[in-house]
Amino acid sequence: MSRSATATLSALGVGAAGELTADPAGVLPVRGELADPLPRGGLRRGSTVSVRGSTSLLLALLAEATAAGCWAAIAGLPRCGALAAAELGVAVHRLALVPRPGRDQSQVGRTVAALLDGFDLVAVGSPVSPSAARKLSARARHRRSVLLPLTDWPGADLALHAESGSWTGLGRGHGLLRERELVVRATGRGTAARPRRTTLLLPARDGGVAAHVAEPGHVAEPGHVAEPGHGLTRRPPTRGPARSSAPSRAPAPKPLRRNARLAVHRA
Amino acid sequence: MAGPASRRSPRTGPVASRRPGEPEVRLSSYTLVVWCADWPVVAASAQAALPPHVPAAVVRGGEVVACSATARAQGVRRGQRKRAAQGRCPELVLFDHDDARDARAFEPVAQAVEELAPGIEVVRPGLIALDARGPVGYHGSPERAAELLVDHVAARVGVEAQVGFADGLFAATLAAHRGVVVPPGGAAEFLAPLGVHELDQPAEHRADRAELVDLLRRLGLRTLGAFAAVPERDVASRFGRQAVLAHRMARGLEERPRARRTPSVELAVTGSFDPPVDRVDAAAFAARGLAEELHARLVDRGLACTRLGILATTEAGEELRRVWRCAHPLTPQGIADRVRWQLDGWLTGAAPTTGPTASPTASPTASPTAGVHLLRLDPEEVVDATALQPGLWPGAGQEGGESAERAARAAVHVQGLLGAQAVLTPVPRGGRGPVERMRLVPWGDEPTPTDDPDLPWPGRLPAPSPATVFAEPEPVALLDGSGGDVGVTGYAELTVPPSRIVHAGRTRRVLAWAGPWPVDERWWDGHTAVRAARLQVLGATSNGEELAFLLIRTGGRWAVEGVYD
């Protein structure tokens, strides 16, 4: 699209593709089941959400937003598995990796600040000083980006803690890793003050995220409302409007092929 | 790099209307000559910053080869001994002869002429020949073209030049000496009354020609016309091959065709700062002006820049250099941004100047010790602007839109801070391991797929893939019940069931495993051949926390290729 055409559309109140589809309410969408631990059913623009305990959880959080046209950057995570990201649904051509964002904390801070200027979602794996962390959070608020630190972060609006549960699919000498239970605890401030706890399948059988079907023996936490028929998961109220803009969505990127059935292994 | 002039089709000159009865002349031999009188003296005086009224001469081997007009007025002549010349004119300034100096000083003149008329040939320093058809046709008449050329050279370089038109280089040179326009076909007529000494141009330093002129004089052939009247056959039989060439020149024919020169396009722009720039905001201001100048130059020539070299020289003499690559042509804003970010990186002392920053061993150079005082933007790779349509590369990473533009600018900014290799974007490719199935290309590079990921890759593990991968697999111990290593047989079976896995100092009980799946890649190539086996292992700590690993065994050792975290 030419610059002038973009300008005209902005004048009419129509944003560029990413903004049009992704956040009518200033909330970036996440894949359905991940919406449960998040207070507004998505990643609110300008907020800081720390993600601890699971790289898969971080990648899954990026998936829906990048597929809808947002741009994501991951800084300071040199061992990030880009293939897993693609399998979880991340549009990897809108993903930038900065494996080594700087030699020292101040340079990391500069790099992350530069990334926040342009990317909608910025994950940070390198530690920064508490004062720099507050500055970066303020910058994310100002730029309306989402900051996703993977370390302890003072002033995070929401903290997600993942605890890896049990895997299924693997036997003693046979099978394949297939799916895993992941318990996500969310604590935060404001609307997120009430702790939430959700059990997901991440990765699920199809490579993505799925709701965890309640099994006998699992007990909901006190205060957690379990809807009948939905196991331990709930549908957040904001999810409806966030999805309602789907008809005007920009051409979705070609989904990456999953090759679940390609490998033929020895028995 | 091909200059634009080489692509431009030659201007079609006018077809000179020929009156009936006029001799037919090959139009291509009609030549325009730009001549600068006493060029060795002009060049030497310019280099020595000598005012023009001071008499000066250039000597070689104790003999004057060129002198200025003021020296000539006082009796200095070409060919005089140095002592004799100094005797005539005591205040004469003498310079040694230096071909390189003459050529160097003449280059701006050549460029000035080239700006008005492409396709020039520098015959020697001081003399330029070109096809007269273009300038004559474009400007309407030879007189008008000559006037423009003389004015332009004087305005651009401050050098006095004379222009002449005639058929053939020799006649045109003599015409330029006299500043006359010889009409096409009139060369023989023009040359006939001139003395045979004109055949010996002193600037050419041809001893054989001087002998010939002397001989012709002694034979009584005192004019070129008289020499031309001698049949060519007799000249050839009496005087030899060199004399035949001279005879052709005397008749107004071409000695040889001209060789056109392709103009070298100087695209780089240089800015110098006084006082030196050591603050980022001042650098940004400087960058903007330079960027606009560079862009204007490129646009003038219909070019677009895809590789931009930024070179900064600090006051202390340090040179910093970085080349930026970009799949999209650079806009003025894009150039300015890159220069600003680059200066930002240098001045804040963050960026190494060379080498991929992705490798931790790359040693960053120290920040410059002084401010930047010279900045040069050098378009290292340019393409024809019309050939570069963004639509040529549709697909991943090339989409438009405001958010894409913002992200691209931020990524390029980070590249300015950390180096071009610091920002990567994954591109799917074919392969079997989780690392090799994603190629990380620097942001801005063309994401060309190397191996087709859609082909069948037997032995590839299905989803899910590990979320944490190790580009360099980390060693790990996989032990059986008695503490011995678990091996893989040639039939791709484990020798014993594993019972413990020790990774990063922690021992985990093995709950389950699957595999091993053998990989035997590129066995035909000794250097890149891989023979390995992969194994999925689920370990649990004493408190029941589960962690799944993807192990690979090569050369009899287990290593962790990925962790499913």
TrEMBL record, chain A:
Biased composition, class Low complexity, residue ranges: 240-251
Disordered, as annotated region: 218-267
Compositional bias of kind Basic residues: 255-267
Protein name: Uncharacterized protein
Annotated source species: Saccharothrix coeruleofusca
